[in-house]
Specification:
The protein contains 25 helices and 18 strands. By secondary structure, the protein is α/β, with parallel strands linked by helices.
Amino acid sequence: MQPIVAEDIKDFDTSLDRLWARRDLVVVAAGALICFRSIYRRARQIGARGQFRYAAVRAEDYVLGTAEEAIRDAVRDAARLPGTRAVVIYLSCLDILTRPDFSDIERTLSAETGCIVRCFFRGPLAKADGIRHETAEEILAALPPEEGAVTASAQLPPPMSDTAGVADFLREEGAAHVLVTPSGCRNALARMDLMPGRSDIYALIPQAEDYVFGMEETAAAETGALAAEGAYRMVHLLSSPVPAFMAMETTSVLQAAEEHGCRACASPTDGFHDAVYGAAEAALRLVQEAADGWWEAGRTALILGYSPLLFGDMAQLDAPIDFLTAYGCNVCIAGRDALTERPALVWLVSAAGVSAAEWLHRECGVPVVRSLPLGDAGRTAWRAEIASVLGLPIEGASVEQTAGDPRSDKILIIADPIAAAAIDRLLRAHGFRNIRCAAYAWDEETAALYRQAAETDVLVFRTAAKLQPAWDAVDAVVADPALLPAMGEKRIVPLTSGLLSGRDAAGEGSGVLGADFAAALDAFLKC
């Protein structure tokens, strides 16, 4: 068992760096979402995002044998980028495990596209393959001299994976989180999607033979050993693409932890979905399991949808929590605090909590507040809504702030729908009338969560092409600046998010209610 801790790698001497140093070469990464995050981070660091493309292969494609065609389509798209003369397919563990005809891919796509197409075997499964594979240096040495350079915008940044999202969401004291993974999935957390200071995340790295005979025995032995140390009372087992594809049976692994006095559960992660969906599934499981043992309803206010990477700095919740506490509420945050009694209300702060919130409302009759106290008018309205739900009076009326002259600027807000609604309300209070809201969903599961969370129409997009018309039509965008290399330059009010930018966006002052966004918004409103 190996601890995973946040680390900052600054050494630019990897195989990827050597491939991207050739300016007419595009790297196409194949596989699941979690496979792309550390690769994207490296491309961002060295300014190679225009030379990076990913082929998002679905879990069912690997099962049905259609993954190869998705990879071929991505290579064809990469070959059409201006200036491309060589394409290297950066194979994932599942590509190596499922064994498409790599020689035929190279031969037929080279002939079809007019570019030199090569497969690069990397990662632990490549090392355990038993066949010698070409190094990056050998691939580069066999290419003709460099000519020109790729001139292309970036793809949309791949968001944080469900595995990372669940690890960030689950923060209860005394719990260990065990990721069953090849090393690449571990690196995605360590280098981008794990907050500093975490010491409760572990990688259970299978042995080479486990990819043939199954991972259960190794997983049970190592998980049992971790539980036997006595440092934890709970173990969360997190999966990644390879064990999910191999349908790893978790019963024996969980039993190994329970034999040493630890409660244990397996989260429904596979590395193919994004963090919003992963955290949503984890939150739903938490409240469903807790409901069976709840005391009668008291004065608990349950915050759903919070995690540092998805929502930002915990400090932005200090004032709202103080307000709730002043009303006699015991404030609990799902994923962090024990859920011992049926809540009197749910405060839903992001789409990551919407499944759990709707289940509590439907099955237990718990009222849900889904607004955010952003700005004076938003704060007044939120407080009035909380007081109404609790059946308590509040001083002062909910008065909407009135603006001076209407402003003609067209604004696009790209954020979680609950945050976007709060920003929309504030901007309208300052005279803006032409506003559209959008949200980036990696797959249909997250798109459904966004539609559930949104109280008004929201443009849900997965590709730059779907977003481009809305982007081009506006004067300014409220969004994570990570979108700019894919979408083009635009006046931007920066609202960084861990979902796209990792832990760099989730520190002190971050979040829609945080100090950084307040300053950016204030500067925009004064223009």
